[in-house]
Design brief:
The chain is an alpha+beta fold. The protein has 2 domains: 64 residues, no CATH class; 116 residues, no CATH class. It is 48% helix and 13% strand. It contains 7 helices and 7 strands; from the N terminus they run H-E-E-E-E-E-H-H-H-H-H-H-E-E. It has a 3-stranded mixed beta sheet. A two-stranded antiparallel ribbon has the order 4-5. A two-stranded antiparallel ribbon has the order 6-7. Helix 2 runs antiparallel to helix 3 and helix 5 crosses helix 6. The longest helix is centred in the middle third of the chain and has 21 residues. The protein is elongated and about 65 Å long.
């Protein structure tokens, strides 16, 4: 971790020099850094990074954060996407109130169009990145979506959730994710590189040393 901290400090020095050379400046008041790990035990001891500002000839402290929002997506230090999913759920709660009023004046066809524009557009944004997270993390989002559909269709809590999507003729969260990940894979299939597998695995054929794998 000390090596990584030292390397990060050196990289930031070079970045700051490049900014100065290009007559630009880093907004240190809005700059933080984040370390990624599967769990908390993989996180380093919190340590600030000091960067020298060659323009003002002063040192600036860059603090460590546990999450960061980039292009509307909240990335957390364990890449579990809980904060981002909670953010989406809050938006759906707001939409639930809006649709509870819209259903009184809009036809079902108009409500469906509004659902695609207001709700599904939020759900599917960058879904390829966070849609494959743990089920216990994404399940609350699925429940929030079910609640929204029950409000739109005026169904009680005991109405089966699968029937909600069939009646309203909209895809489930799993359906949207499957479509998005399939479309993404096909679109970028030319980037998949075939390499020779030079190590033995349990499923490899001992008589075939020219197994191919995707990377």
């Amino acid at each position: 971790m000390d090596i990584a901290h030292h390397q990060a400090t050196e990289d930031l020095k070079n970045i700051e020099k490049w900014y100065t050379k290009m007559s630009l400046s880093i907004n240190f008041s809005k700059t933080t850094y984040m370390t990624l790990s599967i769990n908390q035990s993989g996180q380093p001891i919190e340590s600030n990074i000091e960067v020298y500002n060659s323009t003002t000839h002063t040192y600036h402290t860059i603090t460590k954060t546990t999450k960061s929002k980039y292009l509307g997506v909240i990335v957390d230090q364990h890449i579990k996407w809980k904060e981002h999913i909670d953010h989406i759920r809050n938006k759906l709660r707001h939409l639930t109130y809006i649709f509870s009023n819209l259903r009184r004046i809009c036809s079902m066809n108009h409500l469906r169009q509004l659902y695609f524009g207001l709700a599904q557009s939020i759900i599917q944004y960058c879904l390829v990145a966070w849609g494959g997270t743990y089920q216990n993390i994404i399940e609350p989002l699925r429940r929030s979506l079910n609640i929204l559909l029950r409000v739109i269709l005026k169904k009680d809590r005991y109405f089966h959730s699968n029937d909600l999507y069939q009646i309203f003729n909209v895809p489930t969260l799993n359906d949207i994710y499957t479509y998005k990940i399939t479309f993404f894979s096909l679109k970028h299939s030319h980037n998949w590189i075939l390499t020779d597998q030079t190590y033995n695995t349990r499923n490899s054929n001992p008589q075939d040393n020219n197994n191919e794998t995707f990377h």
